[in-house]
Amino acid sequence: MLSVQERAHIAQVWDLIAGQEALFGAELLRRLFTVYPSTKVYFRHLGDHPDEVQLLNHGQRMLQAVGVAVQYMDNLRAVLSPLADLHAQVLRVDPTNFPLVIQCFQVVLASHLQGEFTVEMQAAWDKFLTGIAVVLTEKYR
Amino acid sequence: MVHFTSEEKAAVASLWAKVNVEAVGGESLARLLIVYPWTQRFFDSFGNLHSESAIMGNPKVKAHGKKVLNSFGNAIKHMDDLKGTFADLSELHCDKLHVDPENFRLLGNMILIVLATHFSKEFTPQMQATWQKLTNAMANALAHKYH
């Protein structure tokens, strides 16, 4: 359950990302593939060395989904249901990979916001993104 | 055994030279205790950990963070033998402190996030990868003597 303050931190950080989902998404994927190369197995459609355009396109898609989650923080299960189906039936990303994405997401936020990336924001986003990961993997079995 | 290339060692050293050990150590530990509150279980003797500001300002947290990061710095000088360097500390964390090694990984992740806030664009994906490799290796070295 997200507290009032946590929701505020989530919305506040999202304000900085909104409109730049492609850029943030591309950086997220670039960091993910560089730091955790094994995650690339789940993105074979991007090829061995995804180019900038591919990262921007796919990154945008991922961050737009996060944006939907921000909008419907109170109802993640319902609003992410189609994505949960996709992950359970088609993508089947091993659940251990979600913390890796979350860590890279935090590094992206930290490097952009620098001193403004307070511990309260980090805690709220860690909790929020973990909640999303739980929903996305809930139908696995 | 983990092998670090000379480029990786140079990258680590170049960033480390600019790190304020006290600030980064204290903040990393504080963030760990706040973002993952169950980690506070090891620090009953640290006094007031009841709020985020209490934790961020707690002098024992800062001192311990500095101690941990100094140990980190020592390990950086011996990147080719982390297991040997951390052997005694590993036994201590197992036999006396009873710390789940998962906490070493979590703290490593916190250090990376704090480094990112300090170094921003300079903390490139490649730099992040090198440091993640280092903190993973350190966590494994600290867990190595567990039994």
From TrEMBL, chain A:
<dbReference type="InterPro" id="IPR012292">
    <property type="entry name" value="Globin/Proto"/>
</dbReference>
<dbReference type="GO" id="GO:0042744">
    <property type="term" value="P:hydrogen peroxide catabolic process"/>
</dbReference>
<dbReference type="InterPro" id="IPR000971">
    <property type="entry name" value="Globin"/>
</dbReference>
<dbReference type="GO" id="GO:0031838">
    <property type="term" value="C:haptoglobin-hemoglobin complex"/>
</dbReference>
<comment type="similarity">
    <text>Belongs to the globin family.</text>
</comment>
<feature type="domain" description="Globin">
    <location>
        <begin position="1"/>
        <end position="141"/>
    </location>
</feature>
<dbReference type="InterPro" id="IPR002338">
    <property type="entry name" value="Hemoglobin_a-typ"/>
</dbReference>
<dbReference type="GO" id="GO:0005344">
    <property type="term" value="F:oxygen carrier activity"/>
</dbReference>
<dbReference type="GO" id="GO:0004601">
    <property type="term" value="F:peroxidase activity"/>
</dbReference>
<dbReference type="GO" id="GO:0019825">
    <property type="term" value="F:oxygen binding"/>
</dbReference>
<dbReference type="InterPro" id="IPR050056">
    <property type="entry name" value="Hemoglobin_oxygen_transport"/>
</dbReference>
<dbReference type="Pfam" id="PF00042">
    <property type="entry name" value="Globin"/>
</dbReference>
<dbReference type="InterPro" id="IPR009050">
    <property type="entry name" value="Globin-like_sf"/>
</dbReference>
<keyword id="KW-0479">Metal-binding</keyword>
<dbReference type="GO" id="GO:0031720">
    <property type="term" value="F:haptoglobin binding"/>
</dbReference>
<dbReference type="GO" id="GO:0046872">
    <property type="term" value="F:metal ion binding"/>
</dbReference>
<protein>
    <submittedName>
        <fullName>Hemoglobin subunit mu</fullName>
    </submittedName>
</protein>
<keyword id="KW-0561">Oxygen transport</keyword>
<dbReference type="GO" id="GO:0020037">
    <property type="term" value="F:heme binding"/>
</dbReference>
<dbReference type="GO" id="GO:0072562">
    <property type="term" value="C:blood microparticle"/>
</dbReference>
<keyword id="KW-0813">Transport</keyword>
<keyword id="KW-0408">Iron</keyword>
Automatic annotation (TrEMBL), chain B:
<dbReference type="InterPro" id="IPR000971">
    <property type="entry name" value="Globin"/>
</dbReference>
<dbReference type="GO" id="GO:0005833">
    <property type="term" value="C:hemoglobin complex"/>
</dbReference>
<dbReference type="GO" id="GO:0005344">
    <property type="term" value="F:oxygen carrier activity"/>
</dbReference>
<dbReference type="GO" id="GO:0031720">
    <property type="term" value="F:haptoglobin binding"/>
</dbReference>
<keyword id="KW-0561">Oxygen transport</keyword>
<dbReference type="GO" id="GO:0031721">
    <property type="term" value="F:hemoglobin alpha binding"/>
</dbReference>
<comment type="similarity">
    <text>Belongs to the globin family.</text>
</comment>
<dbReference type="GO" id="GO:0004601">
    <property type="term" value="F:peroxidase activity"/>
</dbReference>
<dbReference type="Pfam" id="PF00042">
    <property type="entry name" value="Globin"/>
</dbReference>
<dbReference type="InterPro" id="IPR009050">
    <property type="entry name" value="Globin-like_sf"/>
</dbReference>
<dbReference type="InterPro" id="IPR012292">
    <property type="entry name" value="Globin/Proto"/>
</dbReference>
<dbReference type="InterPro" id="IPR050056">
    <property type="entry name" value="Hemoglobin_oxygen_transport"/>
</dbReference>
<dbReference type="GO" id="GO:0031838">
    <property type="term" value="C:haptoglobin-hemoglobin complex"/>
</dbReference>
<keyword id="KW-0479">Metal-binding</keyword>
<dbReference type="GO" id="GO:0072562">
    <property type="term" value="C:blood microparticle"/>
</dbReference>
<keyword id="KW-0408">Iron</keyword>
<dbReference type="InterPro" id="IPR002337">
    <property type="entry name" value="Hemoglobin_b"/>
</dbReference>
<dbReference type="GO" id="GO:0046872">
    <property type="term" value="F:metal ion binding"/>
</dbReference>
<dbReference type="GO" id="GO:0043177">
    <property type="term" value="F:organic acid binding"/>
</dbReference>
<dbReference type="GO" id="GO:0019825">
    <property type="term" value="F:oxygen binding"/>
</dbReference>
<dbReference type="GO" id="GO:0020037">
    <property type="term" value="F:heme binding"/>
</dbReference>
<dbReference type="GO" id="GO:0042744">
    <property type="term" value="P:hydrogen peroxide catabolic process"/>
</dbReference>
